[in-house]
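If your schedule permits, I should be very grateful for your opinion on a structural question. I would ask you to consider whether the tokens describe a fold that such a sequence might reasonably adopt. Thank you for your consideration; the sequence and its tokens are set out here.
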Amino acid sequence: MIVPISPRALSQREGAILLKLLAEPFAGASGLRAQIPYTLVVAHWSEMSPSVDLDIRPGIASAGPIHGIIPVVSEVRDESGSYVGEIIIWATHGYLSGIEYAVVVDDRPRVLPDPQNVEVRLAR
């Protein structure tokens, strides 16, 4: 259930996650990176969820035809190196639209992972 919130700026961790995943070279990456300073968090995906919906302030250029999941694979590891999930960045018609933290563990986190615990590569 989506939980709307008063629009707010990205947290430091949200911004760092976006920068890390959008550093990979794919069509539209630089345009999406340019949107980060103008990105607002407008909803959580559920109560206590670190996954969020994003909106871009008006007047910011589209990153082109990118739509859906960006073509980056990101694996989240815990302190012991075990796989615990992934981060998925969503775009809608060339605009950043979501950060999803998909976890595979029972103990669901309430915050995004430390970017240092995220391994990133281009999708094949």
The two ends are 32 Å apart (CA to CA). The CA atoms of residues 73 and 92 lie 18 Å apart. The chain has two helices and eight strands.
